[in-house]
Structure formats: C-alpha cells, structure tokens
Amino acid sequence: MRSDPPGSDAPDHSGAPSSAERSAGDGVPAVVGPGTAAADLVRARTLLLESGGRGRGRGGEKRLDAESLRDALVDLHEFWLGTRALELGITAGSGMAIVAVGGLGRRELLPHSDLDLVLLHDGKQGSGLSETADALWYPLWDAHIKLDHSVRTPDQAVKVAAADLTAALGLLEARHIAGDAALSSTLVTAVRAQWRAQIRGRFDELADQAADRWRRSGEIAHRIEPDLKHGRGGLRDLQLLDALAAAQLTDRMPGFSPDSPGGGLPGAHKHLLDVRTELHRAAGRARDVLRAQDADEIGDALRLGDRFDLARVLSDSARTVSYSVDVGLRTARAALPKRTLSALRRGPVRRPLDEGVVEHAGEVVLARDAQPARDPALVLRVAAASARTGLPMSAATLARLAEAAPELREPWPREALDELLALLGSGRRLIDAVEALDRTGLWGRLLPEWGAVRDLPPRDAAHTWTVDRHLVEACAHAGALTTRVSRPDLLVLGALVHDIGKGRGGDHSVVGAELATQIGNRLGLWPSDVALLSAMVRHHLLLPETATRRDLDDPETVARVVEAVGGDTVLLELLHALAEADSLATGPGVWGDWKSSLISQLVIRCRLLTAGEALPGPEEVDPAHRALAADGGLHVELAPGTARAPMTVTVIAPDVPGLLSRAAGVLALHSLQVHSASVRSHAGSAVDSFVVSPRFGEPPSAALLRQDLGRSLAGELDLGRRLAEKEKAYGENAVREQREGLAPPRVLWVEDSTTASVVLELRAADRTGLLHRVAGALEAQGATVRWARVVTLGASVVDVFALDLGGPATRARRRQLEAAVLATVGGD
Fold it and tell me: Could you list the residue range(s) of the whole structural domain that residue 687 is in?
C-alpha cells in the first residue's frame, strides 16, 4: 500500500447520500445506476469531469464548482464501493471492511486522484479472502482506475505503521467506507494510540521529512510555478498539522485574529484544494505543479481573475499555512513528552528581554504583569525583541495582542516610533518578525496601507518576491547600509515603503510619495523628515534608471538629477543606499559591481555639480588604442574583470557600416552578455567598447573573437543563421514561452540633451543576439549609435541607444525607426 502523509481526522462515513440523490436538483448527471461494473464508475466520473467550462456543461447542465466536484466524486466512489461491498458480502459482522486513506480518506478526492484502499479483515476468512480481494480490485484495474491497495488485519496494519513513517501518516487519515465498522474503528483507534505513544521518538524524523520536502519543492508563495502539494505552505503541510494534532501536541489552529488576511487556515486550505482541483480538471490528469500557461484558465474557472490574481491568492494561502506549520512544529516540540529524568528538572526560566517582554521556553512572550490594553507600543516592543534575539513570538502572545492591544493614536507616541525603528534596523531577523505580525493581522493595524501590496505578485520577471516581501527584504538589506548614511532612520523607513504605491494604479512612485507623507505624519516624524521620506519614495528609481539608461558624460544628465533632488545631498545619499538595498532585494544578478560603479559615478558627478565644481569630461580614447586605430587594422582586446565585475572587450577597426551590430553578434555567438557599449572613433577607425560577462563557462580568447569578427566583416560568417541555431539549441520553446509570459515589447523616446541626439529605449524579452539584431536594424535605417547600454532584469531587458539620426528627429522618422526595431524584436 502507498499511503499519503497525514490528513484530517474526518468522522466515519455513516450513510452519506449518493451523488445521484444529493445532486438530483443541481443539473449534475446521475452517476451509478443499478449494477456495480467499474465501467459505470468511469462513465459517471467522466460525466462529472466533462461538464463543460465556466458556467454550463456540454449538455447545458450546471458546472460543478471545485468544492462541489470533490464532494460529488467522494459520494460517487463511496456509493460504488458500498454497493460492491454488499455484493461481495463485506457487510456488518462479516469480519471485513473497506477503509480509505489518501484523498478519499480525507474527503478531498480530486478529479484524477488515486484510490488508496485497505481491505481490512479479522484473519478468519481463510482462502475466500483472496477471492474477495480480487473481486474488489480487478474491476477497478480493468477500468484503468489508478489504485493503491493492501489487504491487512488491524494488527498487521499497526505493525506497518510502527515501522514506516509514511505508512503511519497515511493510516492516521483512515476512514471507514463499507463493511464491519467495528473493525475499522479498531484500526483507527490502535493507529492513533500508537502514534501518540511513539511521537517523541518519531518527531525528529517527521520534521526532517518536511524540511527535505521544502528543499526539493521550494516555497509556493514565491515560485512562478508552485508545487501545490509538496511545496512549503501546501497541502502536505496541512496534513502535517493534522498529524501533530492527532498526537495531541497542537490544536492545528494558531492564534489568527479577525484581522488576519485570507480567512485564516480554513480559507487557505480551501483555496489550495480548489486550485489543485481545477488544475486536475484543466490538465486532464493528476498534476501538482501549477504551470504559468495554465494560471489564467484556472483563475478564470475559480472566478478569481487572471494569473496575477490567482498568484496573490496562492501566496496568501501558502504563507498562512507556512506560518501555521512553523507554529505547529514549535508548539509540538515544546509539548513532546519528556524523558524520565528530564521530567524531574525545573521548568524553563522566564528571562526578561524588555519592559513587559520575557523569553520563556525559547519564545518571546508577555511578562505576567504586562497590560496590552494600556501599553500601545507593546506590539512593536515584542516584535523588536523577537528580531533582536532571533526568538519567535509565541502564537498565544500574538493572539492576546491581537485581541487586547489598542490602536496607536496619531501621531504615534515617540516610544512606538523608536520600537518600530529598532525592529526595522534588525537586519534579516526582521523578516520572520514582520511575517508573524502580518499573518496574525497586527502588521496591517500598524500600516493600513500594507493591504494593497500584501501578497501582490510582481509584474516583472526579475522580481523574486511578492511586493510586500520585497519591501521587507529591502528593509533588511538597508539595515546593513545604515552606517553609510547620516539618517539611518529614514533609510530603513524609506526602504520599507518605497513601493507602497503599487497595486493602486498610476505611477507607483507618485502614488507612493503621497502615501509616504500620510505614513510619516502618522508616525509622528518632523515635517522636514516627512518631506524627505516622501522624496525618497518619489525618486527611488531616479539613480538606477539614470545611471543605466543615460549618458553620464552628458552634463545635462547630471543636471536633471540634481534638479530632481533639489540639490539636497542628504537625499542623494539616501537614494544611493536605497538603490542598492532595492536592487539586492529584487533578485539575483540585479545588483553587481557594474551597476554599483555606474550609480557611484552619477552620485559623484551630482555632488560636484551641487558644490559648483567642474564635471569630468568624456573619457578620451586610450593612447594605446589611438595608436592601433591609426594603423587601420582590425584589433580586439579583452580586459579581464574580477569575480563579480564584468570584463571589457574593445574592438578597433575601420569605421564601416554594420560594425557595431556585427561585433555584438560575435559576442553573443560566444555567450557573452553585453551590459553596455560605447562608440568612439579616431583617425577613421571605430573604437567600440563593450562591458560584458560570460553567461556561463570561461570567456573566449581575444584572438577567437577577432577571427570571427573578421570573417563576419568579410561576409564569410552568417551571424543571423548561427545565432538562430544557437537560440534553437538553447531551447526554442523555452525562449518563446519566456517571451509570451511577458508584456509585449515597447519603445520609448527621450531627448538626450540640447544636441541632435535622441535616446531610444527598448523594453523587451531577452533573447540570444538581441543587441546584434537591434543595432543592425538601426544601422539599416541610417541611424548612427553613439552609445548603448543594456540592462538585463531576469527574462527582460532594457536596451538604451543614443542615436544620431542624420537629420531632424521628426515624428515620422521616429515611427520609422520604432517599427524597424519592433519588427526585429518580434521576428524569428
């Protein structure tokens, strides 16, 4: 027998109506009629599952929602098994019983779940037992119904459960279906008694098993394609909680308050089951991983909205389950029966942590004399103590605070603000503390604006986290940068709220600045600090966007930034640190030495301009490169970088049309990702520099790059064909799915300065040789690229080209170039 891990302790089946009886007035097709052929069961299942899409089925019948479908499937299989049991003599007093585990045992049978059944007997049937078992199993096998089965006495089943943890977890959810109910009751009672008696010796294995599963499957809340069954925060974790409850170590329900998001644990359980039910129905087979391409269909079927709305519901549900499991495991470990000598020792000592806050049994709890109703800052003091010590907050303490703690008056008392700043400045330990407050409804009381970003999925593939988790991650990273700024308090506050305007429509920086003013006033900040906090949120993208998408040698670029910050060097300093914290919290690869150096250069130039000093001029061509350019030959140099910093490839060659695109194509052919490119000239030769990094492996030699570039310029190397082959080898389907999952490509135009140059900004999905294709399209249209900068954000890119159009930058001319670029990006 294959048994699933633990499920709910549902009562024994006792005369539940058949599906035909229960749904006679619901437009659901009648299921099993007279006779017990398994083919009838299959036909009835098919009628239930093929009842059309949203609204009505193929024959106009009402479509069952996810929960009703599960109920109908349970009733259908119970009716068939009950009828078959009567025919085979499996009745009350027969010494035989049919027991269900798995989905049917939990009353959570999904459209394509296996049937997990045990034929239980008292050992007195002799040779007739085998015939009865065959008569029960073979019709199901012949009908191609997936079946996991076993034939055991209660004692045999109990012995298996004692030796195999997975079998024990499965038998904890055993439920009587038909036959001798007393026999089933004997099994259930014995298995649960044994589980309670052995839990002290099996708890570590149970916890390790869960941790291994989480490592394999990841967190549902923060995965693009989550595993709804095995992932952290999934259905297996709910069954784990049931197993702990069966051992009488926890009550399965941590202290959720009416303010808790998502309806607490029951709501999370239903959402996860509903999504997995529709996933089975949409896929036509058993499936646990929600693929990105199926999310819109499932969101629509559940009337939740599109894939982003579905992702938000899943994140909320999974985080609620994850928090509950953390509390359940912690509570269970503390409640484990003690060994003989340990039981005689003195209980845990209450160690003071702060006013009204103590440590007890490894958790942060309230002191005996604490008065939550008279201490408005107590919630934040408890959270700050938890973050400072790394100890979790007791679920009972959070429940008491949720029930008794008063609302903070506006403006906040200074003590409350100080505790908030202590919490925000505690680094990585901040994350678990805020999560616990949020899951129990306390964080939303402190920051009512949080509701709009809670569990909000990112729209950009570069973002790893939901928006609310990204804000907390940014705050944790900002905590490590506080010694670099003169106002560490405003840095962590700005990191916490810099994206608070998302999820409300409009420019999130503008909306967020208004909300930051509202929040700052509520916290009791000085008016000047409120203005500074609002400016941080309004301009939190100013430095990274300018540094990576504009020409830093253009004085007009620097002047615009200084004007935007009002010449305020404190604000500039805060924005610099916030840009780093924001990037680090976005995802892997978003922050690095290249991006750091660009922003640092911009900040230095802004400080010089603010101080009235002269800005450094454009970097001149290196004397060694001038000498190479004078000889009129083809030269390629590769300057190595560090472990994190990209390297520089310099191409010196006669300045001919198409040189930039061909050089970019050769770099792409050798798996070098281009971050930026500058185009200069000397003595009739082009001096083009590319900041690159290998996508994988070791970089090619400069000699190999020179050889392939020479062949391309001579017409001996078809770069277009070779790059297409490379993209196909890389995984053509994956590349196309990547592009389909993102917003369509877009072109923006920005004036570079008072010169004739304009900036074309392309936002699109990344693909092999993209810079080669775009540069080639611009060159074919007669535009000269002065410099280019490429930013890769996950599966997306922002490519910026400063262009000399060779004439007026008319609207028609821009449309012509835009059409050429978009055609190139979309082409295969």
Answer: 627-826
